Amino acid sequence: MGGPLCTLTDQHKLFVEYYLIHFVGARAARDAGYLPSNSRTLAWSLLRDPLIIAQIRKRTAEIMGEIKAEQLKIFRELMAVGHSKILDLYNPNGTLKALEDWPEDIARCVSSIKQKIKKDGTKSLEVKLWNKNQALDILTKVTGLQTSELKIALPDNSGSLYFPQPKEIGAPVDQKIIDRDEKLKLIQGEQSGHDHGEKD
């Protein structure tokens, strides 16, 4: 190329789009329609041109915005499922509401609708929601509520202590940790030094 670009052509923009797919300059040049024999040298020049660099940054920002918007949609769907109440689909007398009367947020949580026919010929609908516990489990992870460590605040402004969280609620803490840290014994309701026969 004979110098910096004055403007971006459609082919230049196509080169940027392909480059942002696999981040291989020569391949992006070939995919954009440039001659294979010149693709490596051309890509080297294009990726150092100010207009191409600006276009890459612009498209990267736009793509990241689209990704964040999609993440927000997914998060809202998880929130809807996690906080869903199947009672919202029923009337006070226990009958199922008409489909057009279903609240939008709970309607998005319905995974299946089955029609049941009793022996006497009467029909009823069985509604099933998506897995609420699974949605809440994912939400606790993405919001940071579920961590691999447990933080305990110690009394008298003595700081804080971390120790591995037991796999099951109520499981005993590793005895080695208790023996190693006298502060943890305070939390466990023990008096420091009594285990070793020391005086207060």
Summarize the structure.
The protein has 200 residues and is α+β, with helices and mostly antiparallel strands. It has three domains: 10-70, Terminase, small subunit, N-terminal DNA-binding domain, HTH motif (Arc Repressor Mutant, subunit A, Orthogonal Bundle); 85-129, no CATH class; 149-192, no CATH class.
Task: Please name the CATH topology of the largest domain.
Answer: Arc Repressor Mutant, subunit A
Q: Please identify, by name, the CATH architecture of the largest domain.
A: Orthogonal Bundle
Instruction: Specify Rg, calculated over alpha carbons.
Output: 31 Å
Beta strand %: 5-15%
Lateral strand order in the biggest sheet: 1-2
**Average pLDDT figure:** 77
The gross shape turns out to be elongated
Give the CATH level 1 class of the largest domain. Mainly Alpha
The number of E-state strands comes to 4
- Counting H and I runs of at least 4 residues, what is the number of helices? 8
